[in-house]
Design a protein that fits this description.
- The chain is an all-alpha fold.
- It has 2 domains: 2-156, Tetratricopeptide repeat domain (Serine Threonine Protein Phosphatase 5, Tetratricopeptide repeat), CATH 1.25.40.10; 219-364, Alpha Horseshoe (Serine Threonine Protein Phosphatase 5, Tetratricopeptide repeat).
- The chain is 64% helix and 0% strand.
- It has 17 helices and no strands.
- The protein has helices at residues 2-20, 24-37, 42-54, 58-71, 76-89, 92-105, 107-123, 153-162, 169-172, 224-235, 240-252, 256-269, 278-297, 301-314, 319-331, 335-348, 350-364.
- Helix 3 runs antiparallel to helix 4 (58-71), helix 4 (58-71) runs antiparallel to helix 5 and helix 14 runs antiparallel to helix 15.
- The longest helix is centred in the C-terminal third of the chain and has 20 residues, at 278-297.
- It is elongated.
- It starts with a helix and ends with a helix.
- Mean pLDDT is 74; it is low at 126-220.
């Protein structure tokens, strides 16, 4: 049973990453697979509900969130998303019920949900049923909350400072580097628009998930370039450079399994893999980044993390490695490590920190 649960966790992590990339149908299949392996996993139902909600399958989303709450009492994220389902349906009474639950277990998310309810109710006004027994902590009806003006940003900050659960964004990102960055998403923007990134030079890093090689330039597996390096490897199996060139060619062709195998052999046969010369360090980092990318594309995220850590051993200040490792840590549900890598990026290369920050906001702030 333990092995099944661990397998379910890995599948859930992969599905979460697919959801964040907008691959909803693939993510839904992953979440259902995780639920089959571990039917008592409330998180899997919550992720499933989120995927359904984002593509408008609200009935299935509602059921998934209710299953998540049934399996895990006080599951704030599930209550919040269930409230958003009711808002999308225009059922503001039931959305307010979720607000009232959240008001007790997670005031920050309760405030966020209430803002969404107010905004949508003002755009599509409809009478709310009188519910004399439904009151907030101060004794006023939940319907009456619509008559109050929205709180100012200063008032919201004051409330968060007084009583804030440890899961809020401000807690996670509380450090000087974050002061100039907008940490609170406005409204209910689940997926912020992509921010233009500064392209790293070819000398600094291998092709990344954010900047894959253009399809028009992609060789086929049977290309002359592949055959050339295969012959070189066959001629001298200990030729690290030949393995590396073969791996890069496979990687550009999208053959991640073959690329990983070749790059692993290149690393094994390199005599100066742990060298301190700048050229040696650069090549070590480049190989690790390429191998880590292969592992990511193969769904082998733990191995990707270990490979990126090797790159940091060689060059602790490499921004691309911190970005990749931070994203992988989120897939592995290691939020604290991801935040640490964001901090390092904010110090080393603020522009490169943006993609990791956006992903953290999606995972942490919702």
């Amino acid at each position: 049973m333990v092995n099944r649960a661990k397998t379910a966790d890995l599948i859930l992590a992969l599905g979460g990453d697919q959801l964040l990339m907008g691959q909803h149908e693939k993510a839904i299949a992953r979440f259902r697979e995780a639920i089959q392996l571990n039917p008592n996993c409330g998180e899997a139902y919550a992720w499933l509900g989120k995927a359904y909600r984002e593509i408008g399958r609200l009935g299935e989303a509602e059921q998934a969130f209710r299953d998540a709450i049934r399996l895990r009492a006080g599951f704030a994220l599930a209550h919040y998303n269930l409230g958003l389902v009711y808002v999308a349906r225009g059922d503001f009474d039931r959305a307010l019920e979720q607000y009232e639950v959240l008001h007790t277990i997670h005031p920050v998310r309760a405030e966020r949900l209430l803002d969404v309810i107010k905004e949508q109710h003002s755009q599509a006004p409809r009478p709310l049923a009188d519910r004399p027994n439904s009151q907030d902590a101060k004794g006023e009806s939940a319907v009456g909350l619509f008559d109050k003006p929205l709180k100012s940003e200063g008032e919201r900050g004051s409330q968060r400072a007084e009583s804030r659960p440890a899961e809020t964004v401000a807690d996670v990102f509380e450090h000087p580097a974050a002061e100039a960055v907008e940490l609170e998403p406005q409204g209910d923007r689940e997926q912020p628009a992509p921010v233009a990134e500064e392209q790293p030079s070819r000398e600094e890093t291998a092709p990344s998930a954010e900047h894959p090689a253009a399809p028009a330039e992609t060789p086929t597996v049977s290309s002359p370039e592949v055959e050339k390096w295969k012959r070189a490897v066959a001629s001298d199996p200990r030729d690290a450079q030949a393995h590396w060139q073969l791996g890069q060619t496979y990687l550009a062709a999208g053959e991640h399994g073959l690329a990983a195998e070749a790059i692993e052999k290149a690393i094994t046969n390199r005599v100066d893999f742990a060298g301190s010369h700048p050229d040696s360090v650069r090549e070590t980092v480049e190989m690790c980044l390429a191998l880590g990318l292969c592992y990511e594309r193969l769904g082998r995220f733990q191995e990707a993390a270990q490979t990126y850590e090797q790159a940091l051993d060689a060059d602790p200040e490499n921004a691309e490695t911190h970005l990749r490792l931070g994203l992988v840590m989120l897939v592995l549900n290691n939020r604290r490590e991801a935040v640490q890598h964001y901090r390092d990026l904010a110090r080393l290369a603020p522009q490169r920190a943006t993609p990791l920050l956006q992903r953290l906001l999606r995972v942490v702030a919702k």
